[in-house]
UniProtKB/TrEMBL annotation:
<dbReference type="InterPro" id="IPR013149">
    <property type="entry name" value="ADH-like_C"/>
</dbReference>
<dbReference type="GO" id="GO:0016628">
    <property type="term" value="F:oxidoreductase activity, acting on the CH-CH group of donors, NAD or NADP as acceptor"/>
</dbReference>
<dbReference type="Pfam" id="PF16884">
    <property type="entry name" value="ADH_N_2"/>
</dbReference>
<dbReference type="InterPro" id="IPR036291">
    <property type="entry name" value="NAD(P)-bd_dom_sf"/>
</dbReference>
<keyword id="KW-0560">Oxidoreductase</keyword>
<feature type="domain" description="Enoyl reductase (ER)">
    <location>
        <begin position="18"/>
        <end position="338"/>
    </location>
</feature>
<dbReference type="InterPro" id="IPR011032">
    <property type="entry name" value="GroES-like_sf"/>
</dbReference>
<dbReference type="InterPro" id="IPR041694">
    <property type="entry name" value="ADH_N_2"/>
</dbReference>
<dbReference type="InterPro" id="IPR020843">
    <property type="entry name" value="ER"/>
</dbReference>
<protein>
    <submittedName>
        <fullName>Alcohol dehydrogenase</fullName>
    </submittedName>
</protein>
<dbReference type="Pfam" id="PF00107">
    <property type="entry name" value="ADH_zinc_N"/>
</dbReference>
<dbReference type="InterPro" id="IPR045010">
    <property type="entry name" value="MDR_fam"/>
</dbReference>
Length: 340
C-alpha cells in the first residue's frame, strides 16, 4: 500500500477577535514528511474539538500546559488513528489503532513514542480521545466522591460532564445534579445520562432558586467546569466540608470580551472558612498515573452497559473550523468529534 505523501491540515489564519469563527482558519493540503528511522505513519480516523483551544488562541493566562497558537500554526489535540507503517522492531504495527495529540490533520508522521496503542478489545476506542478522564480524575483524586454524596456537575452536557454524572453515580453518589444552558439538553441529561435533576442557568427562574430546590440540604461535591455565577451559587449551597474540583472555566472561555485565559468569580470566602470547604484545581498533568486506571475502568463500564459515550459527529476536516465555532454556541451534546 502506498503511503500518503500529503496531509490536509487545519491552520490558524488570523488571531480571533472575540470568539473564534470558521474564517479564522484554513484547511490546506501540505507535503507530509518522509518517515525517519523511528517514525510511524498514521492516518487519522477522528479528532477531538475541545474548548481549551479558545485559551490557546487567546492572549490571556500564564503557565499554560500547552503552547499558544499564533497565525500560521497548525491546530493540535487528541486524535484516533490507524498505523499505516512503523519500524519492524518497534512497538507499533500496521493496522494498530492509536491515540495521540496530532489532531486537526488527516495524516501524521511522528516518532512512535508519541502514539499509544488502543487495546484490540477496547469496546469504544473513540471514547479515549474525549476529555472525560478529567472528570474521573477530579471525582476520584480531588473531590473524592463518597457513598451517598450529593454531587453537582456544571456544564453537564459537555465532553466532561456528559460522562461525569454516571461516573459519580458509579463511585457511590446518592444524588447527581447537572447544569446546562439548554432546556432540551437538560431533559436529555435526566432521560439519557443518569442525572437526577438538570438546572438551566439563565432561565427565567433564578439559578440559586433552582439549585436550592434540587439540593435542599446542600451539596457535598462540586465538579465545576464553568466558574462564574454557577461557582458562586455552588459555594452558597455547599454543606460543611464540601469538596470542589475546579476542572474548567467555560464562563471565561465563552466570553467574547475576554482573551480565553481568565474567568473571575465571586465566592463567599467567609463561608469557605467557616464550613471548611475545599476548592482545588485539577489538571491531568498532575496525575500521570491516572490514564491507565481510567482506561481500565472505562472499558469495564462500557462493556457492562453502565456508562455510555455521547458524542456529536462532524463529517470531514473541511467542517472542522465551523465545528469549533459552533462548540462555543452550545450546538453539540457530549463530545464533539470530527470524523475523517
Amino acid at each position: 500500500m502506498a503511503l500518503p505523501t500529503t496531509a490536509r491540515v487545519v491552520r490558524l489564519t488570523r488571531k480571533p477577535q472575540g470568539l473564534p469563527v470558521a474564517t479564522d482558519f484554513t484547511v490546506a493540503e501540505e507535503p507530509l514528511a518522509a518517515p525517519g528511522p523511528g517514525d510511524a505513519v498514521v492516518r487519522n480516523r477522528a479528532f477531538l474539538v475541545f474548548p481549551g483551544l479558545r485559551t490557546l488562541l487567546g492572549d490571556e493566562g500564564a503557565n499554560l500546559p500547552l503552547p499558544r497558537l499564533a497565525p500560521g500554526d497548525a491546530l493540535f489535540g487528541p486524535a484516533l488513528g490507524e498505523v499505516l507503517a512503523a519500524p519492524e522492531d518497534g512497538p507499533l504495527h500496521p493496522g494498530d489503532l492509536v491515540v495521540h495529540l496530532h489532531g486537526w490533520r488527516d495524516a501524521v508522521v511522528a516518532d512512535t513514542g508519541q502514539f499509544t496503542v488502543v487495546d484490540q478489545e477496547f469496546p469504544e476506542p473513540l471514547a479515549l480521545i474525549s476529555a472525560a478522564s478529567a472528570g474521573y480524575g477530579a471525582l476520584t483524586r480531588t473531590a473524592e466522591v463518597r457513598p451517598g454524596d450529593v454531587v453537582l456537575v456544571t456544564a453537564a452536557a459537555g465532553a466532561v460532564g456528559s460522562l461525569a454524572g454516571r461516573i459519580a453515580r458509579l463511585l457511590g453518589a446518592g444524588r447527581v445534579i447537572g447544569t446546562t444552558r439548554s432546556p432540551d439538553k437538560a431533559e436529555r441529561l435526566v432521560a439519557e445520562l443518569g442525572y437526577d435533576a438538570a438546572l438551566v442557568p439563565g432561565a427565567a427562574r433564578p439559578f440559586t432558586e433552582q439549585l436550592a430546590e434540587a439540593a435542599p440540604d446542600g451539596v457535598d461535591v462540586v465538579l465545576d467546569l464553568v466558574g462564574g455565577e454557577q461557582l458562586t451559587a455552588a459555594v452558597d449551597a455547599a454543606r460543611p466540608g464540601a469538596r470542589f474540583a475546579l476542572v474548567g472555566a467555560v464562563a471565561g472561555q465563552l466570553d467574547p470580551r475576554r482573551g480565553g485565559g481568565s474567568a473571575p468569580a465571586v465566592v463567599d470566602t467567609f463561608r469557605i472558612v467557616t464550613l471548611g470547604l475545599s476548592l482545588r484545581g485539577f489538571t491531568l498533568l498532575d496525575h500521570p498515573d491516572l490514564e491507565a486506571e481510567w482506561r481500565e475502568r472505562l472499558a469495564g463500564w462500557l462493556r457492562a452497559g453502565e456508562i455510555t459515550f455521547p458524542w456529536t459527529p462532524v463529517a470531514g476536516i473541511d467542517r472542522a473550523p465551523e465545528a469549533l465555532s459552533r462548540l462555543f454556541t452550545g450546538d453539540g451534546f457530549g463530545t464533539t468529534v470530527v470524523e475523517l
